[in-house]
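Please, structure for the following, as tokens.
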Amino acid sequence: MPTPEAAARENIDAALREALSAPDFLRERLRALPPEKFEDISSADKYVVSRQLYAWDRELGRH
């Protein structure tokens, strides 16, 4: 059985993972990148990324 401190840490880690994987958070972070930085860190096709961002917008009720 984990200690209370370990259990609390697991809860914090889970909450952080959930927040960081939220489509809205990811969308805003990707959108904030200048094009040259995006190209530097991503090997993804821009069309594919744009389609995913659009899909996330639809999930969030923005389209």
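Helices lie at 4-20, 23-32, 35-41, 46-59. The first helix runs from residue 4 to 20.
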